[in-house]
Design a protein that fits this description.
By secondary structure, the protein is α/β, with parallel strands linked by helices. It contains twelve helices and nine strands.
């Protein structure tokens, strides 16, 4: 069975000259048929030239991308070019232990799993020479993804996967977490393999502030995929909060600039907020395929108005029947009305 090892690169000339011979020696010793695929994002340090030189001696294919950038998209490009039935993705900076390749591949060959992931956080795994603060940051970043996949090390970049698993997946990662993307969207059988992660010796780290922001955006997309109803509710609440700001600004403007009576101004501010919420919920929260229309808007308005009536009713009932503080009573009313507004918007207004 052919194994394809995919190495995304960006300015890794010194490391690539070391890792390719190591991969070849390791897989040859394990009697595994293999190919090495280097996907280079148009490096400026002559990484591509180094790979071409190595290709005369080793089973290496080079693909240079001049426009698209990013580790995850480079790995996906490698998936398309790979001929193997088992695909391995690993960093080209020697941070992932090459000697673990046979251990990563064997469980898939034996049909014990469909994906193996190198983990720093199971017995036998770890990080060499990492200070405590960096380990804490790594753990904290990984904890943000624990609702997506049963991985002890969700931010791992070392993976072997059965190619057939990828055939029906729509992958759309942001940034560099291709492993988390594949594991979350495939829901395939996963086995973690302990690895010792090492810091790079040559070159510079690609872990910038932009990459960390991309990780957060990627998590948002994956939670939206894994828990669509929950994340629709979160987005609905975010939109509602922004609508409250619009409501307050419009009311203040009408009262302060145009001397409206607040009891009259609140009617206009409510309409402005509902319009704002409608447009955002239509395009972002529910991603409705229906065209923006007055009919749809009035349906949304009716749901919101019903929620407002329920909120006032709950507030009145709690104040009349209990000794509850009025702000807490109002909060209960907001929770009840928001739940009704969300259900009505999802299942009545934007149901298609």
């Amino acid at each position: 069975m052919l194994v394809s090892v995919i190495l995304p690169t960006l300015n890794e000339r010194d490391n690539i000259a070391i890792i390719i011979p190591l991969i070849a020696a390791t897989l040859n010793s394990a009697n595994l048929d293999y190919e090495i695929i280097v996907v280079d994002d148009n490096s400026t340090d002559f990484t591509a030239a180094a790979v071409r030189k190595l290709s005369k001696e080793f089973l290496v294919s080079l693909f240079v991308r001049e426009h698209e950038k990013g580790l995850a998209s480079a790995a996906m490009f490698g998936f398309l070019k790979a001929r193997g039935e088992i695909l391995v993705v690993m960093d080209s900076d020697l941070s992932h232990p090459v000697e673990k390749l046979p251990e990563m591949i064997k469980p898939i060959l034996e049909d014990k799993c469909d994906i193996t992931v190198g983990s720093r956080h199971i017995p036998g795994g770890g990080c060499s020479s990492w200070p405590v603060i960096r380990q804490i940051i790594s753990r904290a970043a990984g904890s943000l993804a624990f609702g997506l996949a049963r991985l002890t090390d969700p931010t791992s970049g070392f993976m072997a996967v059965r190619k057939s698993i990828l055939s029906n997946l729509e992958l759309s990662p942001i940034g560099w977490k291709i492993v988390l993307e594949v594991v979350t969207r495939s829901q395939a059988r996963v086995l973690e393999i302990p690895i010792i992660f090492k810091d790079r010796i040559h070159g510079e780290s690609k872990l910038t502030a932009l990459v960390q922001l991309q990780y957060l955006l990627h998590l948002f997309k994956l939670y939206d995929f894994k828990l669509p109803n929950l994340w629709q509710l979160v987005k609905f609440c975010l939109v509602g909060s922004s609508g409250l700001i619009i409501d307050s600004l419009v009311l203040a403007g009408l009262v302060e600039l145009f001397v409206f009576d607040p009891r009259i101004g609140v009617c206009f501010s409510f309409i402005a907020a509902v319009t704002w919420n409608y447009l955002l919920d239509h395009s972002w929260t529910f991603r409705s395929k229906q065209k923006v229309s007055l009919t749809l808007f009035f349906s949304f308005f009716a749901v919101c108005f019903f929620g407002l009536v329920v909120r006032v009713g709950v507030l009145h009932l709690l104040l009349e029947r209990t000794q509850i503080f009025y702000l807490l009573a109002n909060l209960v009313g907001v929770v009840v009305s928001t739940s009704l507004n969300f259900a009505g918007s999802k299942f009545l207004v934007f149901k298609r």
